[in-house]
Amino acid sequence: MVTNSSNHPNPYEIGKIIDDPDKFFGRESLFQFIEDNLRQRVKVILLHGQRRIGKSSILAQIPNKVATDQFYFVNFDLQGYIHKPFSHIIYNLAQEICDHLVDDFDLGQDYLTPPSKQDLNNDITIFFDKFLPKVFWLLKSKNLVFLLDEFDVLTIQKHRSEERNFFPYLANLIKRHHQLFMIAVVGRNLVDVPIIVRVFGSPPYHEIGFLNKLSAQRLITKPAKDVVTYEPHAVTKIYNLSAGHPYFTQVLCFTLFLRARENQWKIYSRDVELIVKQAIEKAEAGLAGLWESLPIPERVVFLAVAEAQQRAISQHQLLPEHPLSFLEGYGVIQTNPLYQATKRLKDYGFVDDTERRVKVPLVRHWLLQHHSLRQEILKLKTLDQDQTDPIYQRATRRYQQGQIQKALMLYEEVLQLNPNHFSALLDLAKGYLEAKNFSKAVELYTRAYQVKPVQSKEWFLRSLLKYGDQLIDQQAFRTAKNAFQQVLKIEPDNKSAQQKLKHIEDLSNTPITPVDNTSNLTRLGIAKLAAGLAIISLVGVGLYNVLTPCPTGAQKVFGIRCIATPISRGERSLFPRIDNKEEIDLATEGFRNANYAEAAQSFDQAWQVNPNDPELLIYYNNARARKQGFLPFTIAVVVPIDQSESTAKEILRGVAQAQHEFNDLGGLNGRFLEIAIANDGNKPAKAKEIAQALVKDNSILGIIGHDSSDASKAALPVYDRAGLAMISSTSSSNYLTSLDKNNNVFFRTVPSNLSSARKLAQYVRNKPGLDKVVIFYDDDSVYSKDLKEKFETHFEQLGGKVVREIKLNDPNLNITQEVKNSFSQDQVKAAMLFPRVESVNTAINIAKANANLYQQGLRLFSASTLYENKTLTRGGKRVEGLTTVVPWFREAPKAITFSQAAKKRWRGDVSWVTATSFDATQAFIHAFFKDASREIVLDRLRNIHLFQTDTSGFPLQFTDQGERESQPVLVQVVNGKFKFVSDQDQEGVEKSP
């Protein structure tokens, strides 16, 4: 420890660029990444990170850490030039180069001078043609590297005038000068600055994240090692508060150093707790800058995360409530800007991967101390202000003029554009109260009171009292009682509400005068009386059946008849079992007996033996969900086990993977996801029976299924009437739609037949000589007929011609003769194979006949039903070249991340069926909220917006008719395997998103 330590300067620096190598810690892997790329002559490198993460300090340290023998570095900050014209930016860059060289090479001031601003304004090429050659001559064999700070400022909307000049010009310079390189840092995620990625050709990039624990410990202890002694627990406490963020680590240590002067230069854990408030004050500038950089939706969600996390801490909850769910408690409706804000906060590193915790606890303390969630929520009204303000102003004028109904319509229009415009909400509520629509007024004031309790309290109470009176008049005493009890929750001493409740109690206790019905009995007649006695006897028989329990593996239908149930949550396996049967029987028995801990353990052990089995993983998670003690969210998935076990398992793998990931993250507010599996065998009649059973189970919030379009068509009206959301991951027929198109319950995560037909028609028509085709299809299949019709329509619009349509389900079908006629008689060169699942073997036989008859026969194209291993194994070389349109393919660039994760999970490649089923489950998961009901889930599905990171690779949102807004892809059999047909091979075909 040094002498005179009391006068020792504070070694920690807040918000300054660290250019002293001895004061800079960590980032070794980042500097290695830079050096590796430079030595491989990668000419552009991008670094990105959030504000105050140390980007400028890293640029300052690059000359100290990286390959100085080969490279000469010039640091240039664009922040100061955002208002200046393009020529001035180049002039200042040139001046910076001159200043560096004059200092480092000990040159005279006039030895190297930049072109003048006027010269550059007249001819910008002199920088390239005359100035840079002089620089390279001085550098000899060294390469010049621009270190560009705040590189993205020119992309900010109000400063974008120069980006069109500067970025392309710089990219051209780098391309033409082999000695010129660039390392640039940006303060945003690269997805938010696409022009940079586009202009510079998708260069390698590296995120500047938080310091790891070891580097953070060095930053804490090394600068003051000769002065201050840190207790180990204090170091841990600092790291936990800062999470390794270098700026906040410096702030905490700077403040602690001041305290250490009064504490004999020792820092203890309690000292860290005591200086948090002081540290926040010293970090105010940095925190305020961070806050100002966030748009309003991000601020609202960020505060919601902080408050929900604080509530979870105070209530000793393991997992905080999700911010969007938490905001519902403030009357906020989830909108796309809020959903995207949540994702952006996670991507920026402000919240953790669960989206439920602020990453830096010190920032959470600051948020809670300095910002009001209610105040930020009120600012949501500024979203889409250019659209809402004129309507809101018109509504206010109409209201002031006494035109209440017109005003109400306009306020409703504002809320359609921005559901969280609370000024419009309050005015609308007041308008409905004045119009004596008390139920609507109560509904709106209930929302408004959550965020504006003072302004809305009086009017809310008035609405509740008026509504209660109205309900008493209607003799709806129970609902009226709820209204008055709500008044007392808000204002416990409200005399009017107390009196009304007493009045309801008196009315409820009024005795009912019996009515003499003796004369009515005589009018029944003897025949009716006899019939009544017969009914009573039948009821007696039925009562015995009602009270008699069903045997294991069966369930009551209409409470009387026992049948083997094709639905299971874990009570029994729906698949035929030979291997591992004893362990599975133990698991299902435990589940039936509500011994969920034992069932979970047994299902897990059974799944470990067969990790490719999704049914076991689902039942394991169901047992976990029941064991939690909270009511789980439940959805059902309907699969065709009786017809195709392999297809059923493909669907279940996608569902199981999404369920497992959700439950592993703690679910939502401690509630896990439970899956009920049903087996309809792809039979329409059975599908309808299954649907009827599922809608009667009120715990089920939604359906994934059914598999075939025929089964889905049979079940859909049942779900439609019950208002139960149905997402099919495999049914693509355009005939599938709700009866009431304005209240659609049907969604799908698979592209429709229209999309597939269009994709295939464009691809075929684009091939030379393929202007005529024949179509093989199933006449009694909804799916096959629909695809045939859509393809034919689009193909003929493109100038093609369908010569013949051949029915695969024709009992007299002569495959060999039909192939001969198509090739020789009809002179076509392509055949479209559109089989339903049951006709796949017939389609494969067509391919075999085609190969056997001709060396170069018909080119074959097919629907996704032929995308399965059976096509490759049974067809062999005779299906070589077959091109198939599929909803998703594992080798498509955007699908690779999911396909690799799924391959690791299931120990093998997965199909599109698994991918779209995963997406369907994810859609339901993101539609859940704490008080989820069928109605809420259905409504939230209609507004769902998932990014590719939430799905199997492609964004997911639905049209008003439940269609997925995405395009299918093409695959081709090459050397016995399905291979992705890239966009380059699809000239003239619409690109997939």
What does this molecule look like?
This protein has about 1000 residues and is an alpha/beta fold. The strands form five sheets. The protein has a seven-stranded mixed β-sheet with strand order 17-16-18-19-20-21-22, with helices on both faces. α6 (about 165-175) links the parallel β3 and β4 (about 180-185). α24 packs antiparallel against α25 (about 495-510) and α30 (about 615-625) runs parallel beside α31. The longest helix is centred in the middle third of the chain and has 23 residues, at about 525-545. The chain starts with about 25 loop residues before the first helix and ends in a 13-residue tail after the last strand. The relative contact order is 0.05. The model is unreliable at about 155-165, about 510-565 and about 985-993 (pLDDT under 50).
Strands, helices and their partners?
Elements: H1 28-39, E1 44-48, H2 55-65, E2 71-77, H3 86-104, H4 117-122, H5 126-139, E3 143-149, H6 163-176, E4 180-186, H7 194-199, E5 205-207, H8 213-221, E6 229-230, H9 232-242, H10 246-260, E7 266-267, H11 269-274, H12 276-282, H13 284-292, H14 296-314, H15 323-328, H16 336-348, H17 361-370, H18 373-378, H19 385-400, H20 404-417, H21 422-434, H22 438-451, H23 453-473, H24 477-490, H25 495-508, H26 518-522, H27 525-547, E8 554-557, E9 561-564, E10 567-568, H28 581-592, H29 596-609, H30 614-627, E11 633-639, H31 645-664, E12 673-679, H32 684-696, E13 700-704, H33 709-722, E14 725-728, E15 746-748, H34 753-766, E16 772-777, H35 782-797, E17 801-807, H36 815-825, E18 830-834, H37 840-853, E19 859-862, H38 869-875, E20 883-886, H39 896-906, H40 912-927, H41 934-942, E21 969-974, E22 977-980
